[in-house]
Design a protein that fits this description.
Blueprint: H1 3-9, E1 16-18, E2 50-52, E3 78-79, E4 86-91, E5 95-106, E6 113-120, E7 137-140, E8 164-168, E9 179-187, E10 196-208, H2 224-240
Parallel strand pairs: 1-8
Antiparallel strand pairs: 2-4, 3-10, 4-9, 5-8, 5-10, 6-7, 6-9
Length: 242
């Protein structure tokens, strides 16, 4: 089936949902649903988003974080370069975030991500240390996404909700987030050396930080002698003008 055929056959209005944690053999509490009003994409400092092992020009990174006007666009495809691993560092605009979920639209076949690790407030992460640092949460991404591995066959817009996967994160672990780092550790097909991403949406709460502290000057304990001197000066001034 071609990519254009998929456009007509896989259309609904529900995201796929994933708890995001590895299976620990116990029951999970159902996640709290999110909605579009909780999108944080407009709060991302897109001009300062960076990536390691990126095949694309840096300018393409900002296009990964779409809004309601272009959410179905699937180009440009964000691709890894030398291998299938990719590190994306996402700073927020003068504020901190309580993260609820991450919605990923990726390739759903040969270039589909499998293990995704999340870090917060650590700007030092690179490929020299990412394997030894402890992630805040590990996501197991299912093999769901755009079912097309030929970029030339891809349309610019694919109006289908079937390829979006929402990963719910542990909210209590993702408070006070000023930078979020996404590390795609592996993909489903070990024989391929590229991961493909079409869009990422973050959802949660945003709190703006006040850069200008309010400075209040006050007299903690009055010095009577100071007040006597001030009174004396005022009296002298009055005498001078009589």
């Amino acid at each position: 089936m071609s990519c254009e055929d998929e456009h007509y056959h896989n259309h609904n209005h529900n995201h796929n949902h994933n708890h995001g944690d590895e299976d620990h053999g116990h029951d999970h509490i159902a996640p709290i649903p999110t909605n579009t009003s909780q999108s944080l994409n407009s709060k991302i400092d897109t001009f300062k988003v960076t990536a390691l092992n990126l095949q694309n020009p840096n300018d393409d990174l900002s296009k990964l974080f779409k809004d309601s006007n272009n959410e179905y666009e699937i180009k440009p495809i964000i691709k890894s370069d030398c291998d299938s691993q990719l590190i994306i560092n996402i700073p927020f605009l003068n504020g901190s975030v309580k993260l609820y979920s991450i919605i990923i639209r990726s390739n759903g076949d040969l270039h589909c991500p499998r293990v995704i690790k999340l870090f917060k407030n650590d700007k030092t992460i690179d490929f020299d240390n990412v394997e030894i640092k402890k992630p805040v949460q590990i996501l197991q991404h299912p093999k769901i996404g755009v079912q097309c591995d030929d970029e030339d066959e891809l349309p610019t817009i694919l109006e289908s909700d079937n390829e979006f996967v929402e990963h719910f994160v542990s909210r209590h672990k993702f408070t006070g987030v000023q930078t979020l780092t996404i590390f795609i550790e592996s993909i489903h097909d070990d024989d391929e050396d590229e991961v493909w991403l079409h869009s990422v949406e973050l959802r949660g709460e945003f709190t703006e930080l006040n850069k200008d502290p309010i400075i209040t000057l006050y007299e903690s304990a009055a010095n009577p002698q100071d007040h006597k001197n001030l009174t004396a000066i005022e009296e002298n001034n009055n005498i001078a003008f009589e």
